[in-house]
Specification:
- By secondary structure, the chain is mostly helical.
- The protein contains nine helices and no strands.
- Helix 1 packs across helix 2.
Length: 175
């Protein structure tokens, strides 16, 4: 089991960290902070540059997840990003990723919460320093999911501008 947990943590953690590097540094074909901020601005987020940096840091927590260090904290960060992506980008496109849907995001979310619930495993820094037994279990998984849902909800509701009413948009176009 320990080898399987290590494989899952490393693959998902590296995947998240690579996406974070795209946002933070513009690596791997990413837009960097300003390109990401432009995208977040198009989604009506307030302070899109701040959110771009926060999203980049959250995704860079994949490094912590891969090493199994402060696993619940890294899992919350990953879960917030996935829930927010589902709510704002992928959810309206349905389930399948081929149609721009949320299936991939849901899988990553499940891994983050699941690893927290069962623990990062024997080959983790949390295990090495003796934290793995005290920061895992069903309630840790539930807590990660609950905290991430609350943070994502606040980000999506309070953190975004309301869309302009359709009638106002039509009047602006006519002018």
């Amino acid at each position: 089991m320990a080898y399987g947990l290590l494989l899952i943590r490393v693959v998902v953690g590296a995947q998240m960290a690579a996406h974070g590097a795209q946002k933070m540094f513009g690596w791997f074909g990413g837009g960097g902070p300003h390109g990401t901020a432009g995208f977040f601005g198009s989604l009506r987020f307030r302070l899109p540059l701040v959110l771009a940096l926060m999203a980049a840091l959250a995704e860079l927590s994949g490094v912590l997840f891969a090493f199994g260090l402060v696993t619940p904290l890294a899992a919350i960060a990953i879960a917030v990003v996935m829930l927010t992506a589902i709510a704002t980008v992928h959810g309206p496109n349905g389930y399948f990723a081929g149609n721009g849907g949320y299936e991939h995001n849901l899988g990553i979310l499940a891994v983050a919460v699941g690893i927290t619930a069962i623990g990062p495993g024997r080959f983790s820094l949390d295990h090495l320093i003796g934290w793995d037994g005290s920061i895992s279990g069903l309630w840790w998984g539930v807590g990660v999911l609950g905290a991430a849902a609350l943070i994502s909800l606040l980000t999506v509701t309070v953190g975004r501008h309301r869309p302009a009413p359709a009638k106002t948009q039509e009047l602006r176009r006519a002018a």
